[in-house]
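URGENT: need a sanity check before tomorrow's submission.

F., can you look over the Putative hydroxymethyltransferase record below? I want to be sure the sequence and structure line up before it goes out.
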Amino acid sequence: MVKQVTKALLTPAMLWQIPGGHMPTVEEGVSKISAAHFASGGTFFMGDARIGSDPDTLSLQLLNTALNSATYGVPTVGDFLRKDKGYDWGQMQALNLPDFNVFSILWGGGSTISITTIHSNGEDGGWLADKMVEYYAAPRYFR
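Structure tokens as predicted:
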């Protein structure tokens, strides 16, 4: 959708207020991020090879989070993620953003995870900041 809108408007996009939380693994649990700040945005855009294409590597607390079955068609986050049948969460989708006319992501919004804390939002033990360092080692530029 972003690609079509930016093409029609002849204007690139900046994704704004994307929660920078991530999906923790079983091993990680809530040691870096509280359940209140679990999110898929950070994991989707920055990738997480620890997860790869196996949602069962994710924290049981996340997998067992209840969803509205009428809306999502399944009762839990785990069931929802398994519907993707092999999506590779290890992919760093941020590298594809220029193909969709996106020149920037502004992380965080309100009381969500961002690259640094504002002391009223959650912490992620440096997960997102470490992912940004990884990205900047070999970025893909918008042209």
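My own read: The helical segments are 2-9, 41-46, 60-63, 69-72, 77-82, 127-137. The chain has one domain: 2-135. If you see anything odd, call me.
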